[in-house]
Recover the amino acids of this structure.
């Protein structure tokens, strides 16, 4: 923005250096933890993914071996983790995103008082934290007849023996998705509420004059296009949330791996190799794959809602 | 994008059939939304109500059949048991609580300071590489901490932070989304205001203290809410970066009770969950309108 056509004199250069130094000094306190715990770990994961590393001995270079093993021999990864992760991420990410938009939209059709109360109820689960979520849903899906769901199903005569919801693979992924969606209405959801509220009312009026007929058209032609930036923010938050909730299966079942790997997500696989088997190189390769998947989802979100084509880098 | 913007508006008020966003009063048309939203809100909130009730249940009610959701004879015994309990290594509960309070306060405070100074620099200062640095932070919005648990562990090990308070503070300090939200707010402050302050001889720190902080209050309140939520309930650092029990946090301790004493401690576990959850709820309710204000500037272009 500030490119000057002529070459800078020594004095100008010096003044510029001083100006830059002042700005950098303000940035350093943020940049330091950012570099240490965000940038460096990502770079390290990339580097370590090409090595064998057990924490005790220095890493030894193995080329693409980890990736080759991952995509040809790791049957748990190929048969369980990969399909699980995609199913889970698609339902909780984009699915949770669409849900949070629809809920936000319905809320904005109500007056402020009831809207605030209902929005608070919907937002509350997202601030519960892993401990609370584990406790409450383990009680609800408890495997004996005192579990709420078992009790209700038995009362209704659907089943006559309590089901081990959290110990058998059949229902496990479904429960994980339910719990994750339940706690997915976070700040992305709040952003969408305020995005919809801030749309200029006259846009709707004008559109009806132009022949728009129903609320569905309203959402497609006015609401969503008018709040693209908030939609994008919400999308990024939804994607990050979906991949950050990886602990959910382990919390619900109380063990890593989850029952017969039925709820094993890529983040659990990373923990399994990194902190249980101490195969850090292999875990790093998994991390890189995960980061690439997250990046891919984000590119997609930017493609949909970005104002310009290239938004970053 | 929206051609409608340029159209001359000649809408007759009577003919307008559009939806009334943010209506001022109840109308019959809203009924269908209540029909969907009220059951939904119940579904969202019932598990929370359930745990709060369990926290006050005596043992008999906790294991009653049929299962009880609402407490009949409330007692505070669960909380009392919890407070008198001490960890496997004899560390008292109060120590974990103190650790959590110190770690949370320090993290929230430091996060505020570094986010405000960083946001001010990225928004109002002119320097080389500014756009690039902001783009990097935008990219980091999608950062997934759990993906790099292993390298983070190595950073902690090699920087001498292992088994210190810093291991529980530093990893949570830089929050790209907080920096982004605060910067969005600083962007709204007119440059002229800052130039005037410079003419009056104010340096950067004075400008931040006197102008930036007062004018970005909503974003800072949101920063507090988000950082608090991230730190207060976090168990990762205590799990992975700490082996000394006297340094671990309340969330870690309560989590370990909930996985180890699932049956005997059911009441205590519920009480523990409530203790962890209430501060989040209170802080959010107090700052709620500020958060919503911030969210209206949250768009990514």
């Amino acid at each position: 923005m500030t490119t000057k056509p002529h070459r800078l004199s020594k004095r100008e250069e010096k003044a510029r250096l001083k100006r830059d130094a002042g700005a950098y000094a303000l940035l350093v306190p943020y940049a330091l933890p950012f570099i240490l715990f965000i940038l460096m770990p990502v770079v390290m994961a990339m580097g370590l993914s090409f090595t064998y590393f057990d924490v005790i001995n220095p890493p030894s270079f193995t080329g693409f071996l980890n990736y080759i093993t991952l995509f040809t021999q790791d049957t748990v990864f190929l048969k369980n983790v990969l399909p699980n992760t995609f199913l889970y991420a698609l339902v909780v990410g984009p699915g949770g995103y669409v849900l949070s938009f629809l809920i936000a939209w319905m809320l904005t059709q109500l007056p402020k008082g009831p809207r605030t109360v209902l929005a608070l109820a919907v937002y509350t689960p997202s601030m519960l934290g892993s401990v609370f979520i584990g406790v409450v849903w383990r009680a609800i899906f408890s495997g004996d007849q005192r579990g709420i769901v078992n009790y209700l199903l038995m009362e209704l005569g659907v089943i006559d023996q309590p089901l081990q919801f959290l110990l058998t693979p059949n229902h496990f992924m479904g429960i994980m998705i339910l719990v994750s969606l339940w706690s997915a209405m976070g700040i992305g959801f709040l952003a969408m509420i305020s995005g919809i509220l801030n749309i200029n009312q006259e846009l709707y009026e004008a559109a009806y004059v132009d022949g728009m007929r129903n609320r569905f058209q309203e959402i497609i032609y006015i609401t969503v296009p008018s709040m693209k930036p908030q939609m994008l923010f919400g999308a990024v938050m939804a994607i990050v949330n979906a991949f950050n909730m990886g602990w959910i299966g382990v919390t619900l079942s109380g063990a890593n791996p989850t029952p017969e790997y039925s709820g094993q997500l890529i983040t659990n696989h990373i923990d399994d190799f990194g902190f249980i088997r101490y195969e850090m190189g292999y875990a790093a390769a998994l991390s890189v794959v995960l980061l690439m998947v997250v990046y891919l989802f984000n590119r997609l979100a930017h493609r949909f809602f970005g104002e310009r084509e290239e938004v970053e880098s | 994008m929206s051609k409608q913007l340029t159209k001359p508006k000649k809408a007759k008020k009577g003919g307008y059939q559009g939806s009334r966003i943010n209506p001022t009063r109840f109308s019959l048309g809203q009924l269908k939304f209540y029909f969907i939203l009220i059951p939904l809100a119940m579904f969202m909130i019932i598990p929370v109500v359930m745990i709060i009730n369990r926290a006050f249940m005596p043992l008999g009610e906790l294991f009653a059949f049929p299962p009880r959701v609402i407490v009949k004879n409330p007692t505070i015994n669960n909380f009392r048991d919890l407070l008198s309990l001490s960890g496997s290594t004899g560390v008292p509960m109060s120590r974990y609580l103190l650790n959590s309070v110190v770690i949370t306060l320090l993290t929230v405070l430091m996060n505020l300071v570094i986010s405000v100074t960083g946001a001010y620099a990225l928004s109002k200062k002119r320097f080389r590489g500014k756009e690039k640095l902001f783009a990097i932070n935008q990219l980091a919005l999608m950062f997934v901490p759990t993906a790099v648990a292993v390298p983070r562990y190595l950073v902690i090990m090699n920087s001498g932070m292992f088994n210190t308070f810093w291991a529980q503070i530093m990893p949570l300090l830089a929050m790209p989304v907080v920096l982004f939200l605060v910067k969005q707010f600083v962007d709204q402050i007119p440059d002229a205001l800052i130039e005037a302050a410079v003419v009056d001889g104010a340096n950067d720190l004075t400008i931040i203290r006197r102008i930036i902080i007062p004018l970005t209050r909503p974003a800072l309140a949101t920063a507090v809410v988000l950082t608090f939520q991230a730190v207060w309930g976090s168990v990762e650092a205590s799990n992975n970066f700490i082996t000394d029990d006297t340094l671990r946090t309340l969330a870690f301790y309560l989590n370990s009770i909930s996985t180890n004493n699932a049956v005997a401690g059911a009441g205590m576990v519920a009480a523990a969950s409530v203790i962890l959850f209430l501060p989040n709820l209170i802080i959010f309710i107090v700052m709620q309108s500020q958060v919503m204000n911030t969210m209206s500037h949250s768009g990514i272009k």
